[in-house]
Inverse folding.
């Protein structure tokens, strides 16, 4: 009886709702969230953050650091875990005829004594058909899909 009562006290994990995004469009994914690329067979899921070595707010660093994160990409039965090393300027990988670019990770790294919980991370992602030739430009006019639950 006690176990049943205690089981009801566990915090609920909120899983963000899947979103739909277009090619060449910046969209935002929270950890655990999936995006389907409209009119394409591609799905992308933000699976995990392995490490965050970015320079903390207010610190002077020799290097900017990086966030190492994992996306799962899927086209039909072709499924691949892709590790991104997101530094200033982002990181891109090719998969199944698409270029997937992570341009930014939020929130910014706070002071050294603060920790960012995994469920607070969001990745700004762009998908382009074909091989990467240059970064997809980000501008105030680039359409963006906001995070949603």
């Amino acid at each position: 009886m006690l176990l049943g009562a205690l089981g009801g006290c566990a915090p609920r994990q909120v899983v963000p709702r899947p979103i739909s995004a277009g090619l060449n469009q910046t969209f935002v994914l929270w950890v655990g969230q999936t995006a389907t690329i409209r009119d394409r067979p591609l799905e992308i899921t933000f699976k995990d953050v392995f490490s965050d070595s970015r320079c903390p707010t207010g610190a002077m660093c020799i290097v900017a650091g990086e966030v190492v994160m994992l996306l799962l990409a899927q086209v039909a039965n072709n499924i691949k875990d892709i590790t991104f090393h997101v530094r200033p300027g982002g990181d891109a990988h090719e998969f199944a005829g698409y270029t997937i670019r992570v341009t930014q990770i939020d929130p910014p790294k706070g002071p050294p004594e603060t920790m960012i919980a995994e469920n607070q991370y969001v990745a700004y992602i762009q998908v382009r058909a074909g091989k990467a030739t240059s970064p997809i430009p980000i501008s105030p006019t680039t359409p963006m899909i906001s995070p949603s639950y």
Q: What stands out?
A: The longest strand covers residues 42-52. Residues 68 and 85 are 5 Å apart (CA to CA). The longest helix spans residues 2-7. The chain is about 5% helix and 45% strand.
